[in-house]
Design a protein that fits this description.
Blueprint lengths: L9 H14 L1 H14 L3 H39 L12 H24 L8 H10 L1
Amino acid sequence: MQKTKLGISVGLVGAALYFLGALSIIPAFLLAGYVLLMEDNEWLKKTAVKMVIMIIVFNILYLAVGMVQNVFDSLDIIFGWITPFRIEVPLNLDQLARIVLVILRDLILIISGFNALTMGTIKSKFMDNIINKHM
């Protein structure tokens, strides 16, 4: 079993990356920064980058879904001069989509954390191609 410079196993640090990603972004990014700057294990570095990519992609999707209501609000302002009709996202589907995105992000990070305990990973061509291209 490979050890990190902290003296704990590489798989445990990888799992900690994913679990911290599900709990809070700042400690997760700090641990990912430590791994990228200080550790030598290639799998661990790729795991840190994959966790960061997961969080960034889900946060971009979260913001995109939130912008849908902003578009409708802008249309309300434009058409509000013509008619007193309010345009909204039906049934608060934007909020439902945001909740689903948060749950999905956390589930993927937790499953990835348990896979990381055995130095496994979830295969994703999109993320793996980005990681292999830039590392």
